Amino acid sequence: xxxxxxxxxxxxxxxxxxxxxxxxxxxxxxxxxxxxxxxxxxxxxxxxxxxxxxxxxxxxxxxxxxxxxxxxxxxxxxxxxxxxxxxxxxxxxxxxxxxxxxxxxxxxxxxxxxxxxxxxxxxxxxxxxxxxxxxxxxxxxxxxxxxxxxxxxxxxxxxxxxxxxxxxxxxxxxxxxxxxxxxxxxxxxxxxxxxxxxxxxxxxxxxxxxxxxxxxxxxxxxxxxxxxxxxxxxxxxxxxxxxxxxxxxxxxxxxxxxxxxxxxxxxxxxxxxxxxxxxxxxxxxxxxxxxxxxxxxxxxxxxxxxxxxxxxxxxxxxxxxxxxxxxxxxxxxxxxxxxxxxxxxxxxxxxxxxxxxxxxxxxxxxxxxxxxxxxxxxxxxx
Length: 382
Fold this sequence. Notes:
Elements: E1 3-7, E2 10-14, H1 22-42, E3 46-53, E4 56-63, E5 79-80, H2 85-98, H3 125-129, H4 150-156, E6 166-167, H5 171-184, H6 189-200, E7 206-207, E8 221-222, E9 228-229, H7 237-241, E10 244-245, H8 247-258, H9 265-274, E11 276-281, E12 284-286, E13 291-293, H10 299-305, H11 308-312, E14 315-316, E15 318-325, E16 331-338, E17 341-348, E18 353-359, H12 365-380
Antiparallel strand pairs: 1-2, 2-4, 3-4, 3-18, 5-10, 6-14, 7-10, 8-9, 11-12, 11-15, 12-13, 13-16, 16-17, 17-18
């Protein structure tokens, strides 16, 4: 059963067959008090927020998916999630390992003869996945940002640092990891993601390439100048930043990360691998796709780990030997942005508590982290 009612600028939906009561009304008030001023301050047309807490999902939908059509945001509206896509790519790679198709310790050249003779031929898949391969940049250079030209770029690239010593956040790094993971499974990335991984996770409204019959549910993104924009093609775009997903599916993804026990055994092992810290970078532990922070949590610590400096500059990477699973109480998160969308997903390990926030504008990451932390801490206190 779903129970819905109108609220000011949005719609609140409580799932899981419960009846709204005082506690639910207080949650609603908390979310409204955080999200509505945020949308006004950042001039965001539409947002979808979903929370999972103690086995219940709650959806809070605000504004419009398109300024032109005035179609309201719902929990089935598709949003671009940018680099949150990396958590799906990482899960696919960990799934390939669970199936015995690759090992994170394997060298990239094993799966890509195109890399023969290059510095990347002997790069570990793990270091590609954790941005620690030696300084691949945030983006491909413009003249290499095409599937037909990317291997030419990889062959000419020279490392700036010894592998495993510096973390430099990079689409070409984890993008190549995803490409090679799909190759190890013998199928194109988009196909194995949409036909195997997403259905295996119980996702029903998630895509790399939005089919034509679902375009009506795809939100319009808006650039900082207010002009409409959606993500375009590029080298390894699918692997690095290409997922389009609803808040209903993204909160489902958070839930299976919190409680993977109902997934098949290989997916359970994959989830556990993504939530394992392989490097410590300041106060942040770098997992596969996911990044996490040990308790006691502080807002300042979360902001530092999700800061522009962390994303844009090399940071010392301390190998964790052996790798360390995220403990109960760890804050596990990932941000994601495209030119027209901003997203955030976070959950607290072992506490059945998580949130996703999807917006059709790229607004500051600091504001996303503060908002999510404020909402989840208010829930945790109840």
